[in-house]
Amino acid sequence: MAVCSYCRSTLLREADVVRNIGRMSEVIEDHTRIQITTSGQYEGRNFAVVGRIQLRYEDGFWNEWHVLFDDGTAGWLSDGSGQYVFTLEKGAPSKAPAFEQIRPGAVIPWDGQRFTATDVRTAQCVAGEGELPFQVGSGYVARVADFRSGERFLTLDYSEGETPKVYLGVATTLEALKCQLLRSAEQVEDTAGKLAGKAKALECPSCGAGIDNVPGKADHLVCPSCHAEVALEGDKAEVLKKHDEITQAHTTLQLGDVATIDKVKWQLIGLMRCREYGSDESSTWTEYLLFHATKGFLWLVESDEGWTRTSVLNRLPDDQGTGLRYDGRSYTRKWDYGSEVIYAAGAFNWRVSIGDKTWVTDYYGPDGILSQEKSEAEITWSKSQKVSAREIAEWFGRPADAIAGPAPLTAGRSPLHGFAKAASWAAVIFNAPQLFRGGVLTLLILGLALLMLWVPVWSARTSVFADVGDD
User: Fold this and answer.
1) For residue 156, what are the CA distances in angstroms to 5, 106, 252, 320, 348?
2) Of the candidates 166, 171, 167, the residue with the CA atom closest to the CA atom of residue 151
3) CA quadruple 294, 296, 302, 303: dihedral positive or negative?
4) Backbone angles phi, psi at 243, to 5 degrees
5) What is the per-residue DSSP string for 2-21?
6) Which pLDDT tens digit goes with each residue over 208-242?
């Protein structure tokens, strides 16, 4: 099957006859650097990109690039939010779970390894271009479950029935694939988020306010003025959800700010504030999304513990039972807590909604923190490293004292905190009658007991960030 680049007709070849089976929607140019004619190497073999389909799900979309090797065999290069996976079809498995039974975190054995489900979803093909190996059009439904084991990647594709097709490959980078003829940074910035040749200034379809600094960087945004959730598709902007009036959040960094990190300029395109739930502590933090046309996405996180620089991982850590192993270093499980979005503004590479919840598990190691975020549809991993307030100020061209550092009395959570709090209240309530009868001596004894109870908690709180080392 092929999609004509001029008229968008979808052409199907049957024997020696070519039939026009309809029209395919025009692809939306996003921040991808890949294009038809891009070439590279995989496992020592040369390949060329000849086609692609775009698949959209509830919260975003991704590209699947069809590639051909010199010997005529085919493969797929998946491209989503700056992460790349190269896979080859391996046929149908002798045994596989039903699609409806797969949940993020499920484990299946394959090729002598254990693979963990990290993404399970139903998506629709919304556009395509170039040469494709099967008949597909707008409305084609894909039911896929992705599994990972370290850098290895396994997809079970249930799109054509109950028995899935298997695609096996690896998480990779454009550099590792030795890709050539990629789109330049200028091409990405000029066309991302638009249909080819159709540039249009963006106004919020809900309130009419102009949205600066974000067009072309992502496919979902939250209006800073009215907080409506807006989906971008080509030259159209559609309101997905309106929210009641939300108090404007005051943040250290603002949309449009530019940071120079390691001589690379990053633009701040989105920010969201989250709060913790599901534990004895209640804290909030702010996450800032930065974008660069060829480097992709980067997060900065501001909390009472200070600042961290966070990158999403394209390779799973090795589960050691009691901890993790990643890049030759060990990480110990430390915190489990829920994260809920309470404020968002700007553009994102997925749909952010106020009220979104994920469950987070943090693992501390000698050079940073590995975090697993789990939702109903996916599991993602990220690595965070401590950054000083002075470095943040330098990156954004601010005075050295313009960026706040960590709050000294709230630097971390202690697993003893809940116990200490409950024990303190119990001690006060139980000894209340004695306080009135025993006078100063009883008060001093109770105070000393409470002090001894809380010293380990304060010690653990102030030492949390020391566990991850200094950069």
Assistant:
1) 30, 13, 43, 26, 28
2) 171
3) negative
4) -120, 150
5) EE-TTT-EEEEEETTEEEEE
6) 555 554 444 455 556 655 656 555 554 454 544 44
Give 231-271 pLDDT, tens digit per residue.
555 445 454 444 444 456 789 999 999 999 999 999 998 99
* Cα–Cα distance measured from residue 89 to residue 107, given in angstroms and rounded to the nearest whole number: 20
Residue 195 is given by DSSP the state B
The two structure tokens encoding residue 463: 């030492």
| 3-state SS class at 423 | helix
Give the 3-state secondary structure of residue 93: coil
Contact criterion met (CB below 8 Å) for 45 and 69? yes
Placement of tokens 């038809």 in the chain? 36
DSSP three-state, residue 428: helix
CA angle (71 as vertex; 70, 76 as ends), nearest 5: 70
Q: How far apart are CA 333 and CA 356, in angstroms?
A: 24
- The helix/strand count (H/E) of the chain reads as 3, 27
The tokens describing 196, both together, are 């080819």
What are the tens digits of pLDDT across the range 330-359?
999 999 999 999 998 888 888 888 899 999
pTM exceeds 0.85: no
Measured distance CA(176)–CA(17) in Å, rounded: 40
Which whole-number Å values give the CA distances from 150 to 53, 156, 171, 240, 335, in the listed order? 27, 17, 9, 36, 22
* H-only helix segments in 150-192: 185-191
Which tokens hold the place of 444?
Answer: 């001093």
Residue 57, token pair as written in the block: 């799900």
Q: What is the pLDDT of residues 270-296, one digit of tens each?
A: 999 999 987 666 789 999 999 988 888
Query: Please, where are the H alpha helices in 271-397?
Result: 389-395
Euclidean distance between CA atoms 79 and 157, whole angstroms: 17
Answer left, alpha or beta for residue 307, where phi above 0 means left and psi between -120 and 50 means alpha.
Answer: beta
Instruction: Give the pLDDT confidence score for residue 202 in this predicted structure.
Output: 56
The pair of three-digit structure tokens given for residue 302, joined into one six-digit string = 């501001």
Which residues fall within 8 angstroms of residue 348, CB to CB, at 6 or more apart? 218, 220, 221, 222, 269, 270, 272, 289
Domain residue limits, the chain: 2-183, 191-395, 417-468
Q: What is the separation of C-alpha 342 from the centre of its chain, rounded to a whole number of angstroms?
A: 17
